[in-house]
Design goal:
Blueprint lengths: L1 H18 L2 E6 L3 E6 L4 E6 L5 E3 L14 H5 L4 E6 L5 E5 H6 L4 E6 L2 E8 L4 E9 L4 E5 L5 E2 L14 E7 L12 E5 L5 E4 L10 E4 L23 E6 L2 E9 L4 E6 L9 E7 L3 E6 L7 E6 L9 E7 L7 H12 L11 E6 L1 E8 L2 E8 L3 H13 L5 E6 L22 H15 L2 E6 L3 E2 L8 H4 L10 E2 L16 E3 L5 H12 L5 E4 L17 H18 L2 E5 L11 E3 L13 E2 L2 H6 L4 E6 L6 H10 L3 E6 L20 H15 L10 E6 L4 E6 L4 E5 L5 E3 L2 E3 L3 E5 L4
Parallel strand pairs: 23-26, 23-36, 26-27, 27-31, 31-32, 32-33, 33-35, 35-36
Antiparallel strand pairs: 1-2, 2-3, 3-4, 5-6, 5-12, 7-8, 8-9, 9-10, 9-11, 10-22, 12-19, 13-14, 13-16, 14-34, 15-18, 16-17, 17-22, 18-19, 20-21, 24-25, 28-30, 29-30, 37-38, 38-39, 39-42, 40-41
Length: about 725
């Protein structure tokens, strides 16, 4: 009788034991970390707000949208993409591949838990760790600990020799269900929001590489018109509470994914994946009738160390994207440091390459668009009319023109006026109170010479040949069959190029503007290979060298890795890529950086609606940039730069002066942090600064009233905190 009772009791307890056994693995004053030892899931509890952020939604039984493998993915802390010896790719999640059959082990570690997921069918092991820190949860894939089983003859059974390509970490951490309100924050360009339940179920999911695509990969068929993920983070604002996720280590090889309720599951979620191998198309026997494309894997790069994403629960009530921006700004250590800033930027083009003819014979030439003397006179003319706080971004200023040999020093061009005229330009900069930064490209090899030859110095593409970058037609966006491709400098050679430039320009010029180094990171494939992580380290070495020697260092469309080294951002993104899954653009980039560095727009005079471009600059706390030439725009005809038809300085001189006067009242906010932003209506926005003042911008054709302030049509107004 007693035996039967014990058996009955055990049978009653089994379901309870099978469901979950949640234990507290770490705790501090702010948070608790719990681990489900049966389902291998985690729960991060914010003791301050009582909010729980779960790696798996707790109501998945109510999700009727997920089908097939997506139903299981919701229960998985890892989603793994892999390939076999035949280069066939496949996918497995941690629940199906390991947890369901109990093929995992766990152990408590200091302030957290370590887990090893065994995938017996696939033949690999992936270890992870979750560690509770003072203000966040650090989730890590132990990259160097990934094991792949090796068989004596894997080719006899290719299904049993698998290589890990891509691992998604905590794909449903903080996921929002159909009853939740809020949005995902995506650092795409200036920033974008994906509202929960936005109904965009037919759109493609958001999937972009952090810091942009690896340009050492397969040649693009067409030019891209999208912006990059320029910061390694995303945010979740759910029912007034916010969670910020930041890739702390492994950001150069991270991929950001985001999707909305109805696309794959009944949840809106975002996550990062670590990319160890890319599968890329390679052309076999190109140019022949037997030419074909085959998919081949790149090098396996696991030199990033642990792939670590930190999750920060924010304390703010009724949190917004402004709170997430402030949290990331604080983490970066950015502070108000710009007391005064030039109110406008002139991007003056000195010279461009061209193909001219003599007696019918074509030859390489250079067309002078803005000489040193013309640039100097331009600054003096504007100063004489009261506009003396300009930044001159001078491109094509050396013998190499816009696209020539690598610039390694002050290689002045006699066709532009030579040293004497350049000294006159420097004097004009000093006399007028302007600033001058010389545009330099330390990545692209357009012509061999100056110590850099494509045969020896170029980065390797997937097929181990020197990587070529094609020219694209402005009219169609597709490759120009007659265009001349160029090469990318191998990442390990970039620090030396930066050292040469810094030493040669130190004391000669006040500022340098980097055209590519601040926004482009690529690998080098081939026998040895250089990962994006290693390239990022070389980039940081180069930036540190330049910032130590150059008074003002700026970068075009700078990504987060460049922020510690620069004082100015050129061509700051003021829009997002506008993917179908996103709902609206926000000045997230600007809210992170404003006041810590000067932000200039993309050329306003190249926008189809200049007035609205200037209004966007005001809304986003930026100063306008103008691409102009002092010479005749007819000189552009027949060159690759014919599209710069709107670059005549004479045509824009009055507009530049009027814009300076119009935006002058905004100068007081140059060194302030942006603390808030709201899209009040489709045509009215409000930007708030650290002192409480608000800048209201009206894109509408009629005056608008808001907060007791009249905002003129196609204009702006300021509401001071004292009002």
């Amino acid at each position: 009788m007693m035996k039967k009772f014990l058996i009955l009791l055990l049978l009653c307890l089994l379901p309870v034991m099978a469901f979950a056994e949640v234990i507290l693995v770490a705790e501090n004053d702010r948070m608790e970390l719990h681990y489900d030892t049966v389902e291998s899931q985690i729960i991060l509890k914010d003791k301050l707000t009582q909010e729980e952020w779960r790696s798996t939604p707790d109501d998945i039984a109510q999700d009727k949208r997920a089908t097939g493998v997506n139903k299981i993915n919701r229960q998985s802390d890892l989603i793994v993409q892999y390939h076999n010896t035949s280069y066939v790719t496949n996918q497995v999640n941690s629940y199906t591949g390991a947890i369901k059959k109990g093929d995992f082990t766990w152990e408590l570690i200091e302030n957290g838990v370590a887990i090893r997921y065994y995938f017996p069918k696939q033949g690999f092991v992936i270890p992870v760790q979750y560690v509770l820190e003072e203000d966040c949860l650090a989730a890590s894939i132990i990259s160097e600990g990934i094991e792949e089983e090796v068989w004596e003859d894997p080719d006899t059974d290719p299904e049993k020799k698998q290589s890990v390509m891509n691992v998604a970490l905590l794909p449903f951490m903080g996921a929002a269900g159909s009853d939740d309100e809020g949005y995902l924050i995506i650092p795409d360009g200036s920033g974008a929001l994906i509202h929960f339940n936005n109904g965009r179920t037919g759109a493609a999911i958001y999937q972009q590489d952090v810091y942009g695509r690896d340009d050492a990969l397969t040649i693009r068929k067409a030019a891209t018109t999208t912006y990059d993920v320029n910061m390694p983070l995303f945010g979740i604002v759910r029912n007034g509470r916010a969670l910020m996720a930041v890739v702390e280590n492994g950001d150069y090889q991270a991929q950001l994914n985001a999707m909305v309720n109805g696309q794959l599951t009944g949840y809106s979620n975002a996550y990062f994946a670590a990319q160890y191998i890319h599968m890329e198309a390679n052309t076999i026997m190109p140019g022949s009738e037997h030419s074909t494309d085959v998919m081949l894997p790149t090098n396996t790069f696991r030199d990033m160390g642990n792939f670590t994403v930190r999750y920060y629960p924010l304390a703010a009530e009724n949190a917004t994207y402004a709170d997430v921006a402030a949290a990331y700004r604080a983490q970066l250590g950015l502070k108000e440091s710009i007391a005064d800033a030039a109110t406008q930027q002139l991007e003056m083009v000195a010279s461009i390459p061209s193909i001219d003819t003599f007696l019918g014979v074509p030859y390489k030439s250079v067309r002078v668009l803005t000489s040193y003397e013309q640039a100097a006179q331009t600054l003096r003319d504007f100063a004489a009319e009261g506009l003396n706080d300009l930044t001159l971004r001078y491109t094509g200023w050396s013998k190499q023109s816009v696209r020539g040999k690598m610039v390694t020093g002050l290689d002045l061009d006699n066709r532009l006026g030579g040293k004497k005229a350049f000294d006159g330009l420097r004097q004009a900069v000093k006399e007028t109170g302007a600033e001058m930064v010389l545009a330099v490209d330390l990545i692209d090899i357009y012509e061999d010479g100056n110590g850099y030859w494509s045969l020896f110095a170029a980065t390797d593409s997937v097929n181990s040949t020197a990587k070529q970058v094609p020219e694209f037609l402005q009219s169609t966006g597709y490759q120009d069959p007659e265009g001349k491709p160029w090469y990318l400098l191998s990442p390990d050679k970039v620090p030396e190029a930066a050292r040469k430039l810094a030493e040669n320009l130190s004391g000669q010029v006040d500022g340098v503007s980097l055209s590519m180094l601040g926004n482009t990171v690529y690998s080098s494939f081939g026998k040895t290979g250089i990962s994006r992580t290693s390239a990022g380290m070389y980039w940081q070495q180069a930036l540190e060298t330049l910032s130590g020697k150059i008074q003002t260092l700026s970068a075009k469309t700078a990504s987060a890795y460049a922020f510690p080294y620069i004082e100015q951002v050129d061509a700051t993104p003021c829009a997002s890529s506008r993917f179908d899954v996103t709902d609206m653009e926000i000045p997230f980039y600007q809210m992170v950086t404003h006041g810590a560095m000067v932000l200039y727009t993309e050329p306003a005079n190249e926008d189809g609606n200049v007035r609205k471009a200037l209004l966007r600059a005001i809304e986003y706390g930026m100063y306008p940039s103008w691409r102009v030439i002092a010479g005749d725009t007819a000189l552009l005809s027949g060159t690759d730069y014919a599209s710069w038809h709107a670059a005549s300085l004479d045509a824009w001189r009055e507009e530049i002066k009027n814009t300076a006067a119009w935006m002058a009242p905004l100068g007081v906010y140059a060194g302030m942090q942006m603390t808030g932003h709201e899209q009040v209506t489709a045509t009215l926005s409000v930007t708030t600064y650290a002192n409480g003042d608000m800048v209201l911008v009206n894109y509408g054709s009629e005056d608008a009233e808001h907060l007791g302030v009249t905002v003129p049509a196609l204009g702006y107004a300021i509401k001071e905190v004292s009002e």
